[in-house]
Amino acid sequence: MTDAAARALLPAGLRDILPPDAAIEAGAVSKLMGVFESHGYQRVKPPLIEFEESLLGGGGAAMGPHSFRLMDPVSRRMLALRPDMTLQIARIAATRLGHEPRPLRLGYAGQVLRVAGSQLRPERQFGQAGIELIGSDSAQADAEAVRIAAEGLAALGLTGVSVDLTLPTLVPAVTAALGLADAKAQAVRDALDHKDEARLKGLPGAETFRALIKAGGAADAALAKLAAIDLPPLAKVELERLQAVVAAIRAPAPDLELTVDAVENRGFEYHSGVTFTLFAKGASFELGRGGRYRAGDGNGGPGEPAVGVTLFMDTILRIAPAPPAARRIYLAPGTDPAKAGLLRAEGWVTVAALDGADPQDQAKRLGCGHLLINGSIHSL
Amino acid sequence: MSQSADTPMPANANEPLVLALPKGRILEEAMPLVRAAGILPEAEFDDPDSRKLRFATNHAHISIIRVRSFDVATFVAFGAAQLGVAGNDVLMEFDYPELYAPLDLGIGQCRLAVAEPAEMVATDDPRRWSHVTVATKYPTITQRHFARRGVQAECIKLNGAMELAPALGLSRRIVDLVSSGATLKANGLVEVEEIAQITSRLIVNRAALKTRPAELAGWIERFREVARAA
Question: Which of A159, B86, B173, B218 would you call most buried, defined as having the most Cβ atoms within 10 angstroms of its Cβ?
Answer without folding.
Answer: B86
